[in-house]
Specification:
Blueprint lengths: L10 H19 L3 H6 L10 H9 L7 H22 L1 H22 L9 H11 L11 H20 L6 H21 L1
Helix pairs in contact: 1-4, 3-5, 4-5, 4-6, 5-6, 5-8, 6-7, 6-8, 7-8
C-alpha cells in the first residue's frame, strides 16, 4: 500500500485564505481597528494613500468568524480546481481585479457603506467554475443556470432586502468571473 502525503496543491488559494484568517484574527485582537484601518473600503479622502490600498485589501477582511467561514468554504472548494485549470497567476488576477472593481464601485456608488470580505471573489469563482467545460461557440447550460440562480438572487435581494450584505459586490464578482471564464476558454 502506498503512503499518503499532504500536498500544498493550491498556493494562491491557500495563501489567500491564510492571510484572510490572520487578518480576521488581527481584527479580533484589535477590536475592529485593523479592519477599519486596512481591510475595509469606504469613502475616505482621495489624498489618503490608504484609500487606494483598501481598494484591494478589503477582500482580506471579514466581519466575523461566520462571514469568514462562509467565504472560505466556497473559495477552498472552488479555488483549487480553478487554480489547477487556469494557473496561479490567473487566480491572482481574478482576485485583484475583483477587489479593485468592487472597491471602486462601492466607493463611488455607496459612499456611506463600508465593504469588507471576499464575497465578490466567491461569486467570481462560482461563475468562473461554470465555464470549466466550455467549448468555443457554445454557452454551457450550467453557466446559464448558475448565472440566473446566483446573480438573479443577488439582484432580487439587493432590491428587496435591506441588510449589510453587498449584493453589488456579488454581482460584480460574478460578472468578472464570467468575463474571465469566457475569454480564457474561448482561446482554448
Amino acid at each position: 500500500m502506498k503512503k499518503l502525503k499532504i500536498t500544498f496543491n493550491s498556493p494562491v488559494v491557500l495563501g489567500f485564505m491564510f492571510i484572510s484568517f490572520m487578518t480576521l484574527f488581527l481584527n479580533v485582537l484589535t477590536l475592529g481597528k485593523s479592519n477599519a484601518l486596512l481591510f475595509m473600503t469606504y469613502h475616505s479622502a482621495l489624498t489618503d494613500p490608504l484609500t487606494y490600498v483598501r481598494l484591494f485589501t478589503h477582500v482580506l477582511g471579514h466581519a466575523g468568524w461566520e462571514h469568514y467561514i462562509g467565504n472560505a468554504a466556497y473559495i477552498l472548494l472552488l479555488g483549487p480546481m480553478l487554480e489547477e485549470k487556469y494557473g496561479s497567476k490567473e487566480i491572482v488576477y481574478v482576485i485583484l481585479i475583483t477587489a479593485m472593481v468592487t472597491g471602486v464601485m462601492n466607493y463611488i456608488f455607496f459612499p456611506g457603506v463600508a465593504l469588507c470580505g471576499a464575497s465578490g471573489v466567491v461569486f467570481a469563482f462560482i461563475l468562473l467554475t461554470s465555464f470549466t467545460n466550455f467549448k468555443n461557440g457554445e454557452i454551457p447550460v450550467t453557466f446559464i443556470l448558475v448565472a440566473v440562480i446566483y446573480l438573479g438572487q443577488q439582484v432580487y435581494e439587493g432590491i428587496s432586502i435591506q441588510d449589510n450584505i453587498s449584493n453589488l459586490s456579488h454581482v460584480v464578482g460574478g460578472i468578472i468571473g464570467s468575463i474571465v471564464g469566457y475569454r480564457k476558454n474561448k482561446k482554448r
